[in-house]
## 1
Amino acid sequence: MIPASWTGRRRVARLLLLVAALALAVSACAPDEGGGGGGDSAGGTVKVGFISPVTGFVAALGTDMRRGWEMYWQQNGAKVGDVTVQTVFEDDTGDPEVALTKARRLVEQEQVQLVAGPILANTAYAVAGYVAGRGLPTLQMTGADDLTQRKYDPHVLRVGYTSSQSNFPAGKWAYDQGHRTAVTICPDYAFGWESCGGFVSAFVDAGGTIKRQVWHPLGTQDFSTYVSQARQANPDVVFVGSAGGPDAILFYKAWTGFGLKDKIPLVGNCCFADQVFLREVGDEALGLQSFTYWVEGRDSEVVQRFVQAYEQQHNEIPSLYAAGAFMMAQVTAEALKKTGGKIEGEEFINAARQVSLSDSLYGALTFDDTNNVVGPVYQTRIAKRDDGTLWSVVENTFPEVSQFGTEGKEAFLQHPVFSRDYTGQ
Amino acid sequence: MTVPRWTAAALAAAGIAAVVAAPYVLPSFAVYLLTLTFIAALLAGSVNLLAGLAGLVSIGHAGIAAAGAYGVAWAAVHDRGIGAQLGVAAALTLAVSVVYALTTMRTSGIVFLMITLALGMTVFGLALKLSSVTGGQNGLTGIGRPQAVDEWWQFYFFTAAVFGLCLVALAVINRSPFGLMLRGIRESPSRMTSLGYSVTTAKFVAVVLSGAFAGCAGVLLVWNSEFMSPSVASFPRSALAVVMVILGGTGTLLGPLVGAGIVVAGEYWLSSYVERWQTVLGAVFILVVLYAPRGVVGTIAALPRRSRKEGT
């Protein structure tokens, strides 16, 4: 320790005081805005920021998204009319804090005019809130219901379906098949609540009874207790709303392990029997029924062209996430055609909302007045392609399904958003 | 202490000057990263208070920060003013800190580590499950900053000021008899007990005190992002705070700031160019632990002493 003399200490104190005073004086006046955001499109290019998680626990989804987005521009060229679309990619690692910071970087530093993505509900809310707050348009593909419902913002367009949307037809269909009682199994967080909410509200509206709602934690290893709970209730039909991944696979293994495969009819949601699931489960999955909007085996030129090109390049059948990002790119391009290559806040979203596609990866699409897709939902079955690969094919089409089910906007928005406590019963 | 007083003062003056000048010379995004660095450094500083003085390493401090953040978020969503926001945040932070303190005050080492880990996971789980209050996985939106610090540069100065004040407070605690008592407990709890100190009480106070700083970090965090979700309480957030402390130098005053700078640079700047930025950060961490176990600041602070010894 150096002994401190009084003079030394006083000099130090005086110096610090001086600096602090200076600091206060300087910080009282505002600096120039460091980065603008928006701005005119220079030299016939528009800059689009694309955020998806390519590292972290949902890296697989984010990688597929990037591939889907790139595939569109590859197939159609990056030039729309006179302008060239330039994409700046960012990784959000699946964390909202990171997603928000990356969105700031894109807007303030890269000066992008439009932000597309990310995918997880919480990251999407964070990004959409910030981007819309800056007056810039953003395209989203996450399922979180409220993004285009109770938290609707004119700067945000969802090129996709809400988590509950594709399950309304499932509930109605199950009742029409003669099923009167049902059990639902969903993961215990927002996506699961909303997925089950869609099925339950439609099933109950039609006149059915829910015997039990089983909620399992995300990342459950052993599904036997949940499967046996479902069995004990002895329902006519079981609905499983899954976010895919290991949960879906482990659930289905427990389900078949209990010998329930041919005993109780099982209906899945959009994301239950995806390609990851099919590769792992194999032939045991044949015949499995789901309700979804992305069907890789749908008999449509648009879909088959995409699947073929994607398979050639990446050696696997494209997932829902690849298709979703491809759709965002397509809507971007279509909207640019309408605005003559300009991207200006709400106007761009208004133009994008007018986009209507007679056929797309999702089928015939329009948008409703709170910026969500109105489009077909398909009842699918797992089948074998000619080369022996498992994929989904269409059994039935339910056209023009709205995010508000059959209730209409006003009545629907009277309810709270679906949660563990409220699934529309 | 080994650095001459005038050098320290000159460095401090230069530091303050740089902090003040930043928004005038740097683009807004870089200033935003600095804001994030200060907030992260504050959380790391609260971890460092326990780790550096009492030798108690917590890997659940994000849970306490989240308590403060949820306090502000909840009150803001319910249209309460700043006073109410801070009040709810303080109450929640205190409540959670007391739980942390009560459950860990009789432990040390690996047991302390595991209990804080469990508590952090508990807060994370509650944040996910109590969706009617926390918004669950979707989080809470529509949280505005206080009017006076709404602009990005205003908020930067505000954050820097709060961080500066906390730094002074941490320095005071460091030199206080209480700080000395914690060091004594770290070296030999049994001797401190026989000298008449209450080890459990000291640990209780230390955890609650450290929780206050973590709570401040949480409040700044939520005002900064104007959004709140359970990931603030997640394990990676807690773990990164410990990484920052070790990178910067455990027990040093400025270590957490330097560590936070390195981590933020990796997470938000490097990651735009290198997809495997975590690998780079991991490699840096290993190198620091191997070749500069006292951390960046700890090693630099020891340099003058070593060179003087070699010189004579």
## 2
Amino acid sequence: MSTADRLKNYVKAVSAVALGKAPAGRNLTVFPGDVFLVSYLRSGSTWTRFLFGNLVHSNEAVTFANVDRLVPSIYALPDRTLRSLPRVMKSHECFDPRYRRVIHLVRDPRDVAVSFYHYNLKTRVLPDGYPMEDFVVKWMNADIVPYADRLGTWEEHTLSWLRLRSNDPNYCLIRYEDLLANPTGELNKVVPLLGVEAAEQRILRAIELSSATQMRSMEATQSEQWVTTKDSRKDIPFVREAKAGGWRKQLPEESVRKIETAWGGLMRELGYALSASEQRPAAQVEKPYATR
Amino acid sequence: MRALRAAWSTLRGRQLAGRNATIYPDDVVITSYPRSGNTWTRFLIGNLIYQDEPTTFANIEARVPEIYFNPDHVMRRLPRPRILKSHEVFQPHYKRVIYIVRDPRDVAVSFYHHNLKAGNIADGYPMEDFIPRFIAAEFDYRWGNWAEHVTSWIALRENHPGFLLLRYEDMKKDPEGELARVAAFLEQCSFRKIDSSPQMLKRAVELSSPERMRELEKAQAKDWVLTKKTRQDKPFVRSAKAGGWKSTLSPQSVALLESAWGDLMKRMGYELAGVHATAASE
């Protein structure tokens, strides 16, 4: 880092703290009643925020312009602001013992890889034409971009929540794939944690208002108003396929093999069938310990 | 007011690093739940690596700094590879970790006294009332409870090459043997050459004995960031023993701890008192 850069960072850090503008992130003040939607990156958390927001707020439809107010991300706003907002929040953190009520969203890592590849093009982390094989190798080593690397690998991230909380009544695991296939059933599971009435009408409305078609048309007009997309390339969409299994067409065979070799045990535990013909034994996983 | 104070400390570069500390891939991080022998381990390692001058409470922060008491930019200037002290639960970016685990029944007793010293509980506060609060991680809740802490590291890192698991009790039984394991781990982490000959191991253990640490504490407690604002009538270096819980904890408290965390305790090699647990649940 050059002296000028260091000085710039210093001034930025001081003024962000002084003006109370530093996003909360890991420094978030956590209250016991807070509900967290946690997931690894590119696992459907934005869609799920729309679903949750539309479920909780029955008199206002979620848009990209208001999602940070209705279902705030801990990375978008300062701690001070978050205190006065609804406390169903989105987070990408690894296991944090302070989070007591957790809805954990997981997605097939082969699809996560494809989605994150495109997202890195959109955010200009990778240049057009960057080989996906090379990306996957670096991604599996958590060596792409600091904000993502900090979260650990997909496996570490997923295991950290699963092993610590899977016996906890205030923890709910949902798979992106199940949410796509049966949104009503999956939303019914999280309704108690969100603390809303499980009226069917309400759930159907939330699904309708959060459909991929709806979200794409909102992105077209609102992407400048959303902190996540406003500085990114506009020729690549944020709401991409919104499908499960896209990896079959897009992910090179070599990359599939690498992912399945490294994380096959956990993938099978989560119900993601491996494509490799030879079936590997499931990883030796200890039963989770009762922690509370 | 809070924002102003925070800005002022950022302005002076005094903001403590804590969990936002920069961690380099070659850093070795000594991690444990509080009151598990972390400070003793820092002394042992400090005395092993710096063989010129004994480690004291006055120089420990410059040798094996604690992330909660030092600003990031100060620690960034230390020679690499660094050895840092942390109490964090599983952190994916800690690539090389020395993890210390201690019998939670002893941790509970030690933590009780630590909270007396820190002024968090009053003299005479009943231990029976403390134990459930300890299990619920009411003190230092950002690190979770003992079981969450241990599980997070064991489930994610056990058997990884960058992870060394130490048990406080094994260290008490055979400090030189366990310190030799630490030295081997540090060397495998491409650390600078360490003279871990038997004499040097013996020297490090002697320079880190409870007697010596108590003496140092007496002279330096007011200078050390961890102890200077705490009650000076209570020692930081306490009994430094394993199994003290047997004479301190009531059967009810033991039963409470064992019914909450028994499986994990057994897995870590801590024999359960058992009988009491059944007696209490009847």
